[in-house]
Specification:
Radius of gyration of chain B: 16 Å
Order of helices and strands of chain A: HHEHEHEEHEEHEEEEHHEEHEHHHH
Helix content of chain B: 25-40%
Mean pLDDT of chain A: 80
Structural class of chain A: alpha+beta
Number of strands of chain B: 7
Number of helices of chain B: 6
Shape of chain A: elongated
Oligomer: heterodimer
Distance between the termini of chain B: 11 Å
Low-confidence stretches of chain A: 204-224
Largest sheet of chain A: 11 strands, mixed
Strand content of chain A: 15-25%
Chain lengths: 405, 178
Protein backbone atom coordinates (compact mmCIF):
# COMPACT_ATOMS: atom_id res chain seq x y z
CA UNK A 1 0.00 0.00 0.00
CA UNK A 2 2.80 2.37 0.91
CA UNK A 3 4.45 1.61 -2.40
CA UNK A 4 1.24 2.43 -4.18
CA UNK A 5 0.98 5.73 -2.32
CA UNK A 6 4.54 6.50 -3.35
CA UNK A 7 3.86 5.55 -6.99
CA UNK A 8 0.79 7.77 -7.05
CA UNK A 9 2.73 10.73 -5.72
CA UNK A 10 5.42 10.18 -8.30
CA UNK A 11 2.81 10.06 -11.05
CA UNK A 12 1.70 13.59 -10.18
CA UNK A 13 5.20 14.87 -9.87
CA UNK A 14 4.57 18.58 -10.36
CA UNK A 15 1.73 18.96 -7.89
CA UNK A 16 3.62 16.78 -5.45
CA UNK A 17 6.71 18.91 -5.86
CA UNK A 18 4.70 22.08 -5.31
CA UNK A 19 3.16 20.76 -2.13
CA UNK A 20 6.50 19.57 -0.84
CA UNK A 21 8.11 22.89 -1.67
CA UNK A 22 5.46 24.91 0.15
CA UNK A 23 5.62 22.61 3.11
CA UNK A 24 9.37 22.61 3.37
CA UNK A 25 9.57 26.39 3.10
CA UNK A 26 7.07 26.66 5.93
CA UNK A 27 8.84 24.12 8.10
CA UNK A 28 12.25 25.53 7.23
CA UNK A 29 11.22 29.04 8.10
CA UNK A 30 9.76 28.15 11.45
CA UNK A 31 12.73 25.98 12.33
CA UNK A 32 15.14 28.71 11.21
CA UNK A 33 13.47 31.46 13.19
CA UNK A 34 13.16 29.41 16.30
CA UNK A 35 16.76 28.26 16.19
CA UNK A 36 18.14 31.70 15.53
CA UNK A 37 16.10 33.36 18.22
CA UNK A 38 16.98 30.63 20.70
CA UNK A 39 20.66 30.94 20.00
CA UNK A 40 20.61 34.72 20.05
CA UNK A 41 18.87 34.56 23.36
CA UNK A 42 21.33 32.05 24.68
CA UNK A 43 24.35 33.98 23.47
CA UNK A 44 23.04 37.27 24.78
CA UNK A 45 22.31 35.90 28.20
CA UNK A 46 25.64 34.14 28.47
CA UNK A 47 27.67 37.21 27.59
CA UNK A 48 25.66 39.42 29.87
CA UNK A 49 25.85 37.18 32.89
CA UNK A 50 27.12 38.92 36.01
CA UNK A 51 27.39 42.33 34.40
CA UNK A 52 25.00 44.65 36.20
CA UNK A 53 25.97 47.92 34.62
CA UNK A 54 28.15 49.31 31.86
CA UNK A 55 29.65 52.75 32.15
CA UNK A 56 30.83 54.52 29.03
CA UNK A 57 30.73 57.77 27.12
CA UNK A 58 27.36 59.42 26.61
CA UNK A 59 25.39 58.25 23.63
CA UNK A 60 22.96 55.48 22.88
CA UNK A 61 22.78 53.13 25.85
CA UNK A 62 22.03 50.21 23.53
CA UNK A 63 25.12 51.02 21.49
CA UNK A 64 27.17 51.11 24.66
CA UNK A 65 25.95 47.67 25.68
CA UNK A 66 26.43 46.23 22.20
CA UNK A 67 29.94 47.57 21.95
CA UNK A 68 31.16 46.91 25.47
CA UNK A 69 29.49 43.62 26.28
CA UNK A 70 29.00 41.96 22.89
CA UNK A 71 31.77 43.67 20.93
CA UNK A 72 29.40 44.18 18.01
CA UNK A 73 28.80 47.90 17.62
CA UNK A 74 31.27 50.74 17.69
CA UNK A 75 31.93 52.33 21.08
CA UNK A 76 30.16 55.53 22.04
CA UNK A 77 33.41 57.24 22.94
CA UNK A 78 35.95 57.30 25.72
CA UNK A 79 35.76 58.15 29.38
CA UNK A 80 38.45 59.65 31.60
CA UNK A 81 40.31 57.04 33.60
CA UNK A 82 40.24 59.23 36.65
CA UNK A 83 36.46 59.25 36.73
CA UNK A 84 36.31 55.52 36.08
CA UNK A 85 38.67 54.91 38.96
CA UNK A 86 36.49 56.96 41.24
CA UNK A 87 33.67 54.57 40.42
CA UNK A 88 35.79 51.62 41.37
CA UNK A 89 36.02 52.76 44.93
CA UNK A 90 32.29 53.09 45.42
CA UNK A 91 31.23 50.87 48.35
CA UNK A 92 28.31 49.27 46.47
CA UNK A 93 30.50 48.08 43.63
CA UNK A 94 31.95 44.60 43.95
CA UNK A 95 34.32 44.92 41.03
CA UNK A 96 34.67 46.72 37.76
CA UNK A 97 36.50 45.77 34.60
CA UNK A 98 38.06 48.40 32.35
CA UNK A 99 37.86 47.98 28.59
CA UNK A 100 39.71 50.01 26.02
CA UNK A 101 39.93 49.42 22.34
CA UNK A 102 40.14 50.89 18.92
CA UNK A 103 42.27 48.33 17.12
CA UNK A 104 41.74 45.03 15.45
CA UNK A 105 43.63 42.34 13.61
CA UNK A 106 42.02 40.83 10.51
CA UNK A 107 38.62 41.95 11.73
CA UNK A 108 39.05 40.61 15.25
CA UNK A 109 39.00 43.16 18.03
CA UNK A 110 41.95 43.79 20.25
CA UNK A 111 40.61 44.64 23.70
CA UNK A 112 42.70 46.12 26.44
CA UNK A 113 41.51 45.06 29.86
CA UNK A 114 42.78 43.42 33.03
CA UNK A 115 42.76 39.90 34.42
CA UNK A 116 39.34 40.43 35.99
CA UNK A 117 37.81 40.15 32.54
CA UNK A 118 39.13 36.61 32.19
CA UNK A 119 37.97 35.72 35.68
CA UNK A 120 34.55 37.14 35.00
CA UNK A 121 33.98 34.84 32.01
CA UNK A 122 35.72 31.97 33.76
CA UNK A 123 38.21 31.71 30.95
CA UNK A 124 41.05 29.23 31.44
CA UNK A 125 44.29 28.94 29.53
CA UNK A 126 44.84 26.08 27.15
CA UNK A 127 48.37 27.36 26.55
CA UNK A 128 50.56 30.05 28.02
CA UNK A 129 49.68 32.64 30.62
CA UNK A 130 48.27 36.10 30.94
CA UNK A 131 50.22 39.10 29.65
CA UNK A 132 53.15 40.34 31.68
CA UNK A 133 54.46 43.04 29.40
CA UNK A 134 52.94 45.65 27.22
CA UNK A 135 52.11 44.25 23.75
CA UNK A 136 51.61 40.73 25.07
CA UNK A 137 48.25 39.32 23.96
CA UNK A 138 46.04 36.40 24.87
CA UNK A 139 43.82 34.94 22.16
CA UNK A 140 40.28 33.71 22.55
CA UNK A 141 39.83 30.20 21.23
CA UNK A 142 37.84 31.03 18.10
CA UNK A 143 40.07 34.00 17.37
CA UNK A 144 43.22 31.86 17.54
CA UNK A 145 41.70 29.27 15.26
CA UNK A 146 40.55 31.81 12.70
CA UNK A 147 43.74 33.81 12.65
CA UNK A 148 45.89 30.71 12.62
CA UNK A 149 48.10 32.23 15.31
CA UNK A 150 50.11 30.14 17.72
CA UNK A 151 52.06 30.75 20.87
CA UNK A 152 54.92 33.10 20.16
CA UNK A 153 53.40 34.47 16.92
CA UNK A 154 53.77 38.17 16.18
CA UNK A 155 51.37 40.40 14.32
CA UNK A 156 50.66 44.05 13.62
CA UNK A 157 47.32 45.44 14.69
CA UNK A 158 45.15 47.51 12.40
CA UNK A 159 43.69 50.80 13.37
CA UNK A 160 39.90 50.64 13.61
CA UNK A 161 37.64 47.64 13.37
CA UNK A 162 37.83 46.75 9.72
CA UNK A 163 40.65 45.08 7.90
CA UNK A 164 41.36 48.13 5.78
CA UNK A 165 42.46 50.19 8.73
CA UNK A 166 45.91 51.66 8.91
CA UNK A 167 48.43 49.16 10.23
CA UNK A 168 50.48 49.96 13.30
CA UNK A 169 53.70 48.89 11.75
CA UNK A 170 55.97 50.35 14.36
CA UNK A 171 55.07 47.83 16.99
CA UNK A 172 53.85 44.28 17.02
CA UNK A 173 51.92 42.10 19.40
CA UNK A 174 53.27 38.86 20.85
CA UNK A 175 50.97 35.93 21.55
CA UNK A 176 51.66 34.71 25.07
CA UNK A 177 48.51 32.75 25.80
CA UNK A 178 45.54 30.98 24.19
CA UNK A 179 42.30 30.39 26.04
CA UNK A 180 40.02 27.38 26.18
CA UNK A 181 36.59 27.82 24.58
CA UNK A 182 34.18 29.59 26.93
CA UNK A 183 31.12 29.88 24.73
CA UNK A 184 31.10 33.61 25.36
CA UNK A 185 32.26 36.78 23.68
CA UNK A 186 35.80 36.15 24.98
CA UNK A 187 36.30 33.42 22.37
CA UNK A 188 36.20 35.96 19.59
CA UNK A 189 38.59 38.52 21.01
CA UNK A 190 42.26 39.31 21.25
CA UNK A 191 42.90 40.41 24.81
CA UNK A 192 45.74 42.50 26.05
CA UNK A 193 46.54 44.87 28.88
CA UNK A 194 45.07 48.35 28.95
CA UNK A 195 48.64 49.67 28.83
CA UNK A 196 49.27 48.00 25.46
CA UNK A 197 46.41 49.91 23.93
CA UNK A 198 47.75 53.15 25.35
CA UNK A 199 51.30 52.38 24.27
CA UNK A 200 50.49 51.63 20.70
CA UNK A 201 48.55 54.83 20.25
CA UNK A 202 51.32 56.77 21.84
CA UNK A 203 53.82 55.53 19.28
CA UNK A 204 51.30 56.11 16.66
CA UNK A 205 50.56 59.70 17.46
CA UNK A 206 51.69 61.33 14.18
CA UNK A 207 49.84 58.82 12.01
CA UNK A 208 46.79 59.25 14.13
CA UNK A 209 46.43 62.89 13.26
CA UNK A 210 46.34 62.17 9.55
CA UNK A 211 43.33 60.00 9.47
CA UNK A 212 41.48 61.27 12.46
CA UNK A 213 38.77 62.67 10.26
CA UNK A 214 38.13 59.58 8.25
CA UNK A 215 37.07 57.41 11.12
CA UNK A 216 35.73 59.87 13.58
CA UNK A 217 33.35 57.43 15.12
CA UNK A 218 36.13 55.19 16.32
CA UNK A 219 37.60 56.19 19.56
CA UNK A 220 40.77 55.23 21.24
CA UNK A 221 42.03 55.14 24.70
CA UNK A 222 44.99 57.44 24.91
CA UNK A 223 47.44 57.67 27.67
CA UNK A 224 47.96 61.39 27.82
CA UNK A 225 44.30 61.87 28.48
CA UNK A 226 44.16 58.74 30.61
CA UNK A 227 41.08 57.35 28.95
CA UNK A 228 39.40 54.00 28.70
CA UNK A 229 36.44 53.05 26.56
CA UNK A 230 34.07 51.45 29.00
CA UNK A 231 33.77 49.93 32.41
CA UNK A 232 31.87 46.72 33.17
CA UNK A 233 30.48 46.83 36.67
CA UNK A 234 29.22 44.22 39.10
CA UNK A 235 27.38 45.43 42.18
CA UNK A 236 27.70 44.08 45.66
CA UNK A 237 23.97 44.15 46.23
CA UNK A 238 20.82 45.06 44.32
CA UNK A 239 20.98 48.38 46.14
CA UNK A 240 23.62 49.35 43.59
CA UNK A 241 21.11 49.30 40.77
CA UNK A 242 18.93 51.75 42.63
CA UNK A 243 21.63 54.32 43.25
CA UNK A 244 24.63 54.10 41.02
CA UNK A 245 23.23 54.40 37.48
CA UNK A 246 21.35 57.54 38.46
CA UNK A 247 24.42 58.96 40.14
CA UNK A 248 26.57 58.32 37.08
CA UNK A 249 24.08 59.76 34.66
CA UNK A 250 23.36 62.86 36.67
CA UNK A 251 26.68 63.75 38.24
CA UNK A 252 29.34 62.72 35.74
CA UNK A 253 30.08 63.16 32.08
CA UNK A 254 29.66 59.43 31.62
CA UNK A 255 26.58 57.36 31.09
CA UNK A 256 25.52 54.18 32.83
CA UNK A 257 23.52 51.56 30.95
CA UNK A 258 21.88 48.48 32.40
CA UNK A 259 22.39 45.48 30.09
CA UNK A 260 19.26 43.71 31.29
CA UNK A 261 17.05 46.64 30.32
CA UNK A 262 18.75 47.37 27.02
CA UNK A 263 18.70 43.75 25.94
CA UNK A 264 15.04 43.47 26.78
CA UNK A 265 14.45 46.46 24.58
CA UNK A 266 16.44 44.84 21.81
CA UNK A 267 14.41 41.66 22.16
CA UNK A 268 11.24 43.64 21.90
CA UNK A 269 12.46 45.19 18.68
CA UNK A 270 13.67 41.91 17.23
CA UNK A 271 10.67 40.08 18.60
CA UNK A 272 8.38 41.88 16.17
CA UNK A 273 10.50 40.71 13.28
CA UNK A 274 10.75 37.20 14.61
CA UNK A 275 7.07 36.78 15.23
CA UNK A 276 6.26 38.22 11.81
CA UNK A 277 8.55 35.71 10.15
CA UNK A 278 7.16 32.96 12.30
CA UNK A 279 3.64 33.91 11.30
CA UNK A 280 4.68 33.85 7.65
CA UNK A 281 6.15 30.40 8.19
CA UNK A 282 2.90 29.21 9.72
CA UNK A 283 0.96 30.76 6.88
CA UNK A 284 3.19 28.90 4.42
CA UNK A 285 2.37 25.65 6.14
CA UNK A 286 -1.31 26.47 5.97
CA UNK A 287 -1.05 27.18 2.27
CA UNK A 288 0.88 23.96 1.90
CA UNK A 289 -1.94 22.13 3.65
CA UNK A 290 -4.38 23.70 1.22
CA UNK A 291 -2.19 22.69 -1.69
CA UNK A 292 -1.98 19.12 -0.42
CA UNK A 293 -5.75 19.14 0.01
CA UNK A 294 -6.43 20.42 -3.50
CA UNK A 295 -3.93 18.14 -5.17
CA UNK A 296 -5.32 15.12 -3.35
CA UNK A 297 -8.85 16.07 -4.29
CA UNK A 298 -7.83 16.64 -7.90
CA UNK A 299 -5.95 13.43 -8.21
CA UNK A 300 -8.91 11.63 -6.67
CA UNK A 301 -11.21 12.99 -9.33
CA UNK A 302 -8.80 11.67 -11.91
CA UNK A 303 -8.38 8.43 -10.08
CA UNK A 304 -11.90 7.69 -8.99
CA UNK A 305 -12.00 4.90 -11.53
CA UNK A 306 -8.84 3.42 -10.10
CA UNK A 307 -10.26 3.57 -6.62
CA UNK A 308 -13.47 1.89 -7.77
CA UNK A 309 -11.36 -0.71 -9.48
CA UNK A 310 -9.54 -1.39 -6.24
CA UNK A 311 -12.89 -1.85 -4.54
CA UNK A 312 -13.89 -4.35 -7.22
CA UNK A 313 -10.62 -6.15 -6.50
CA UNK A 314 -11.63 -6.57 -2.89
CA UNK A 315 -10.32 -3.44 -1.18
CA UNK A 316 -12.58 -2.23 1.60
CA UNK A 317 -13.59 1.45 1.77
CA UNK A 318 -11.41 1.89 4.84
CA UNK A 319 -8.42 0.63 2.86
CA UNK A 320 -8.94 3.37 0.27
CA UNK A 321 -9.33 5.89 3.08
CA UNK A 322 -6.00 4.66 4.41
CA UNK A 323 -4.38 4.97 1.01
CA UNK A 324 -5.34 8.61 0.62
CA UNK A 325 -4.20 9.42 4.16
CA UNK A 326 -0.93 7.62 3.57
CA UNK A 327 -0.26 9.63 0.45
CA UNK A 328 -0.77 12.85 2.34
CA UNK A 329 1.37 11.75 5.29
CA UNK A 330 4.14 10.60 2.99
CA UNK A 331 4.07 13.98 1.30
CA UNK A 332 4.23 15.80 4.61
CA UNK A 333 7.04 13.63 5.90
CA UNK A 334 9.14 14.44 2.86
CA UNK A 335 8.18 18.11 3.17
CA UNK A 336 9.23 18.07 6.80
CA UNK A 337 12.58 16.46 6.05
CA UNK A 338 13.31 18.97 3.29
CA UNK A 339 12.14 21.76 5.55
CA UNK A 340 14.59 20.83 8.29
CA UNK A 341 17.38 20.66 5.72
CA UNK A 342 16.31 24.01 4.31
CA UNK A 343 16.31 25.53 7.79
CA UNK A 344 19.84 24.23 8.33
CA UNK A 345 21.03 25.68 5.03
CA UNK A 346 19.52 29.04 5.90
CA UNK A 347 21.25 28.96 9.26
CA UNK A 348 24.56 28.12 7.63
CA UNK A 349 24.11 30.97 5.18
CA UNK A 350 23.22 33.38 7.97
CA UNK A 351 26.10 32.12 10.03
CA UNK A 352 28.76 32.88 7.45
CA UNK A 353 27.14 36.23 6.73
CA UNK A 354 26.71 37.07 10.41
CA UNK A 355 30.28 36.07 11.10
CA UNK A 356 31.55 38.69 8.70
CA UNK A 357 29.13 41.42 9.55
CA UNK A 358 28.55 41.11 13.26
CA UNK A 359 31.07 38.57 14.49
CA UNK A 360 28.12 36.51 15.39
CA UNK A 361 27.71 32.94 14.31
CA UNK A 362 24.88 30.49 14.76
CA UNK A 363 25.58 26.83 14.80
CA UNK A 364 23.08 24.07 14.82
CA UNK A 365 23.85 20.53 15.71
CA UNK A 366 21.16 17.99 16.37
CA UNK A 367 17.47 18.63 16.33
CA UNK A 368 15.84 21.16 18.60
CA UNK A 369 12.71 20.54 20.62
CA UNK A 370 10.69 22.84 18.40
CA UNK A 371 11.73 20.84 15.37
CA UNK A 372 10.59 17.66 17.05
CA UNK A 373 7.26 19.34 17.74
CA UNK A 374 7.04 20.45 14.13
CA UNK A 375 6.90 16.81 13.03
CA UNK A 376 3.56 15.87 14.61
CA UNK A 377 2.32 19.33 13.67
CA UNK A 378 3.23 18.78 10.02
CA UNK A 379 1.73 15.31 10.02
CA UNK A 380 -1.38 16.74 11.66
CA UNK A 381 -1.62 19.26 8.84
CA UNK A 382 -1.35 16.39 6.37
CA UNK A 383 -4.01 14.43 8.16
CA UNK A 384 -6.45 17.34 8.15
CA UNK A 385 -5.76 18.02 4.49
CA UNK A 386 -6.40 14.36 3.68
CA UNK A 387 -9.60 13.86 5.61
CA UNK A 388 -12.12 15.25 3.15
CA UNK A 389 -10.55 13.59 0.09
CA UNK A 390 -10.25 10.37 2.08
CA UNK A 391 -13.93 10.49 2.99
CA UNK A 392 -14.69 11.01 -0.69
CA UNK A 393 -12.72 7.89 -1.49
CA UNK A 394 -14.44 6.05 1.32
CA UNK A 395 -17.92 6.92 0.19
CA UNK A 396 -17.56 6.64 -3.56
CA UNK A 397 -20.32 4.68 -5.30
CA UNK A 398 -18.27 2.20 -7.26
CA UNK A 399 -21.07 0.74 -9.29
CA UNK A 400 -21.93 4.04 -10.91
CA UNK A 401 -18.30 4.96 -11.45
CA UNK A 402 -17.49 1.66 -13.16
CA UNK A 403 -20.52 2.11 -15.38
CA UNK A 404 -19.29 5.36 -16.91
CA UNK A 405 -16.63 3.99 -19.14
CA UNK B 1 -23.26 -15.18 -22.01
CA UNK B 2 -25.84 -12.49 -21.80
CA UNK B 3 -26.33 -10.62 -25.04
CA UNK B 4 -28.43 -7.49 -25.35
CA UNK B 5 -28.56 -3.87 -26.47
CA UNK B 6 -27.41 -0.95 -24.31
CA UNK B 7 -29.69 0.13 -21.53
CA UNK B 8 -31.17 -3.28 -21.00
CA UNK B 9 -29.62 -3.70 -17.55
CA UNK B 10 -26.75 -6.00 -18.43
CA UNK B 11 -24.21 -4.11 -16.35
CA UNK B 12 -26.70 -3.81 -13.51
CA UNK B 13 -27.00 -7.56 -13.53
CA UNK B 14 -23.24 -7.94 -13.47
CA UNK B 15 -22.82 -5.47 -10.61
CA UNK B 16 -25.52 -7.29 -8.68
CA UNK B 17 -23.67 -10.54 -9.23
CA UNK B 18 -20.42 -8.93 -8.09
CA UNK B 19 -22.03 -7.44 -5.02
CA UNK B 20 -21.23 -3.93 -6.17
CA UNK B 21 -24.93 -3.07 -5.92
CA UNK B 22 -27.68 -3.99 -3.45
CA UNK B 23 -30.64 -5.84 -4.95
CA UNK B 24 -34.07 -4.58 -3.87
CA UNK B 25 -35.14 -8.15 -3.45
CA UNK B 26 -33.79 -11.61 -4.13
CA UNK B 27 -30.31 -12.88 -3.49
CA UNK B 28 -27.06 -13.82 -5.23
CA UNK B 29 -25.34 -17.00 -4.17
CA UNK B 30 -21.82 -17.91 -5.23
CA UNK B 31 -20.29 -21.23 -4.19
CA UNK B 32 -22.91 -21.67 -1.50
CA UNK B 33 -22.32 -18.22 -0.02
CA UNK B 34 -25.09 -15.67 -0.30
CA UNK B 35 -23.20 -12.55 -1.33
CA UNK B 36 -26.22 -10.36 -0.63
CA UNK B 37 -26.14 -11.40 3.01
CA UNK B 38 -22.52 -10.31 3.41
CA UNK B 39 -22.07 -6.75 4.57
CA UNK B 40 -19.37 -4.13 3.99
CA UNK B 41 -15.86 -5.37 4.44
CA UNK B 42 -16.79 -9.02 4.39
CA UNK B 43 -18.42 -8.62 1.01
CA UNK B 44 -15.41 -6.72 -0.39
CA UNK B 45 -13.14 -9.48 0.86
CA UNK B 46 -15.37 -12.19 -0.60
CA UNK B 47 -15.42 -10.40 -3.94
CA UNK B 48 -11.64 -10.04 -3.91
CA UNK B 49 -11.14 -13.74 -3.32
CA UNK B 50 -13.86 -15.30 -5.42
CA UNK B 51 -14.79 -12.98 -8.24
CA UNK B 52 -12.58 -11.73 -11.05
CA UNK B 53 -13.81 -8.86 -13.17
CA UNK B 54 -12.96 -7.82 -16.71
CA UNK B 55 -14.17 -4.46 -17.96
CA UNK B 56 -14.77 -2.98 -21.38
CA UNK B 57 -11.58 -1.02 -21.14
CA UNK B 58 -9.55 -3.04 -18.71
CA UNK B 59 -8.67 -0.55 -16.05
CA UNK B 60 -5.42 -0.55 -14.17
CA UNK B 61 -3.69 1.64 -11.64
CA UNK B 62 -1.75 3.87 -14.00
CA UNK B 63 1.16 4.69 -11.74
CA UNK B 64 2.42 1.10 -11.43
CA UNK B 65 3.48 -1.63 -13.87
CA UNK B 66 1.33 -4.50 -15.17
CA UNK B 67 3.12 -6.91 -12.84
CA UNK B 68 2.58 -4.60 -9.86
CA UNK B 69 -1.09 -4.36 -10.81
CA UNK B 70 -1.35 -8.14 -10.65
CA UNK B 71 0.44 -8.18 -7.30
CA UNK B 72 -1.85 -5.47 -5.98
CA UNK B 73 -4.91 -7.53 -6.97
CA UNK B 74 -3.57 -10.48 -4.99
CA UNK B 75 -2.66 -8.39 -1.99
CA UNK B 76 -6.09 -6.71 -1.96
CA UNK B 77 -7.65 -10.18 -2.01
CA UNK B 78 -5.52 -11.04 0.98
CA UNK B 79 -3.42 -13.53 -0.95
CA UNK B 80 0.38 -13.85 -0.84
CA UNK B 81 2.43 -12.62 -3.76
CA UNK B 82 2.93 -15.25 -6.47
CA UNK B 83 5.14 -13.97 -9.23
CA UNK B 84 5.51 -17.37 -10.88
CA UNK B 85 1.76 -17.67 -11.34
CA UNK B 86 1.58 -14.10 -12.62
CA UNK B 87 4.26 -14.83 -15.20
CA UNK B 88 2.51 -18.05 -16.17
CA UNK B 89 -0.75 -16.19 -16.77
CA UNK B 90 0.95 -13.46 -18.76
CA UNK B 91 2.69 -16.01 -20.99
CA UNK B 92 -0.54 -17.91 -21.52
CA UNK B 93 -2.03 -14.64 -22.70
CA UNK B 94 1.03 -13.87 -24.83
CA UNK B 95 2.10 -10.68 -23.04
CA UNK B 96 4.88 -11.99 -20.78
CA UNK B 97 7.24 -9.34 -22.16
CA UNK B 98 4.95 -6.52 -21.03
CA UNK B 99 5.10 -7.34 -17.32
CA UNK B 100 7.36 -4.41 -16.47
CA UNK B 101 5.50 -1.90 -18.66
CA UNK B 102 3.03 0.66 -17.48
CA UNK B 103 -0.55 -0.18 -18.56
CA UNK B 104 -0.59 2.94 -20.74
CA UNK B 105 2.28 1.52 -22.80
CA UNK B 106 0.19 -1.46 -23.93
CA UNK B 107 -2.07 -1.58 -26.98
CA UNK B 108 -5.81 -1.91 -26.39
CA UNK B 109 -5.72 -5.61 -27.25
CA UNK B 110 -2.79 -6.20 -24.93
CA UNK B 111 -4.46 -4.23 -22.19
CA UNK B 112 -7.54 -6.37 -22.49
CA UNK B 113 -5.44 -9.51 -22.24
CA UNK B 114 -3.67 -8.10 -19.20
CA UNK B 115 -7.14 -7.44 -17.80
CA UNK B 116 -7.92 -11.14 -18.10
CA UNK B 117 -4.69 -11.93 -16.25
CA UNK B 118 -5.67 -9.45 -13.55
CA UNK B 119 -9.09 -11.12 -13.20
CA UNK B 120 -7.56 -14.61 -12.93
CA UNK B 121 -4.57 -13.82 -10.71
CA UNK B 122 -6.63 -14.37 -7.56
CA UNK B 123 -7.80 -17.79 -8.80
CA UNK B 124 -11.47 -16.79 -8.54
CA UNK B 125 -14.45 -19.10 -8.83
CA UNK B 126 -16.29 -16.75 -11.16
CA UNK B 127 -15.07 -14.29 -13.77
CA UNK B 128 -17.52 -11.54 -14.67
CA UNK B 129 -16.74 -9.82 -17.94
CA UNK B 130 -18.48 -6.57 -18.87
CA UNK B 131 -18.20 -5.87 -22.60
CA UNK B 132 -14.74 -7.45 -22.81
CA UNK B 133 -14.50 -7.13 -26.61
CA UNK B 134 -16.57 -4.09 -27.52
CA UNK B 135 -13.62 -1.74 -27.83
CA UNK B 136 -11.56 -4.11 -29.97
CA UNK B 137 -11.22 -4.59 -33.71
CA UNK B 138 -12.33 -7.86 -35.25
CA UNK B 139 -8.94 -9.52 -35.05
CA UNK B 140 -8.35 -8.63 -31.39
CA UNK B 141 -11.97 -9.41 -30.58
CA UNK B 142 -11.45 -12.93 -31.85
CA UNK B 143 -8.16 -13.31 -29.99
CA UNK B 144 -9.38 -11.92 -26.67
CA UNK B 145 -12.61 -13.93 -26.75
CA UNK B 146 -10.60 -17.08 -27.43
CA UNK B 147 -8.14 -16.37 -24.64
CA UNK B 148 -10.88 -15.40 -22.25
CA UNK B 149 -12.73 -18.62 -22.79
CA UNK B 150 -9.63 -20.78 -22.79
CA UNK B 151 -7.85 -19.38 -19.76
CA UNK B 152 -10.90 -18.86 -17.58
CA UNK B 153 -12.19 -22.36 -18.06
CA UNK B 154 -8.60 -23.63 -18.00
CA UNK B 155 -8.23 -22.29 -14.46
CA UNK B 156 -11.49 -23.81 -13.38
CA UNK B 157 -13.56 -20.69 -13.07
CA UNK B 158 -17.08 -20.02 -14.30
CA UNK B 159 -17.38 -17.26 -16.88
CA UNK B 160 -20.19 -14.76 -17.23
CA UNK B 161 -20.01 -12.31 -20.12
CA UNK B 162 -22.48 -9.51 -20.68
CA UNK B 163 -22.17 -7.75 -24.02
CA UNK B 164 -23.91 -6.16 -26.92
CA UNK B 165 -21.13 -7.32 -29.23
CA UNK B 166 -22.88 -9.32 -31.95
CA UNK B 167 -19.54 -10.81 -33.02
CA UNK B 168 -19.65 -13.04 -29.96
CA UNK B 169 -23.17 -14.22 -30.73
CA UNK B 170 -22.38 -17.72 -31.84
CA UNK B 171 -19.26 -18.44 -29.79
CA UNK B 172 -20.81 -19.49 -26.53
CA UNK B 173 -23.32 -22.20 -26.10
CA UNK B 174 -24.87 -20.89 -22.91
CA UNK B 175 -26.28 -17.73 -24.27
CA UNK B 176 -29.22 -15.58 -23.21
CA UNK B 177 -30.52 -12.72 -25.27
CA UNK B 178 -32.35 -9.85 -23.56
Amino acid sequence: MLQLAYANLKEHFLTTALSIMLLSIGVGMVSFIVTVSEQLNDRFTRDIRGIDMVVGAKGSPLQLILSAVYQIDNPTGNIPLAEANKMKRHPLIKYSIPLSYGDSYKGIRIVGTDSLYLHHYEATFSEGTIWNHSMDVVLGNTAAEKLGLKMGSHFHGNHGFDEKGHAHEESHYNVVGILNPTGTVVDRLILTSTESVWDIHNHDEPAHEEHAHEDKHEHHAEEEKGEITALLVKFKSPMGIMQIPRMVNEKTSMQAALPAIEINRLYELMGIGFSTLQAIGMLMMLIAALSVFISLLNSLKERKYELALMRSLGASPSKLFGLVVQESLLLCLVGYAFGIILGRLAIMALSSFGEEQFHFSVTQTGISIVEIWLLPFTLGVGLIAAIIPAIHAYKSDISSILRND
Amino acid sequence: MVLGRSGKGKTTLLHLLAGLMEPNSGSVTIDGQSITKLKGKARDAFRGKNIGMVFQQAQFIRSISVMQNLQLARSLAGLPNDEAFANELLSELGIADKAKNRPSELSIGERQRAGIARALITQPKVVLADEPTSALDDENCELVADLLQKTVTGHGAALVIVTHDQRLKNRFLNSVEI
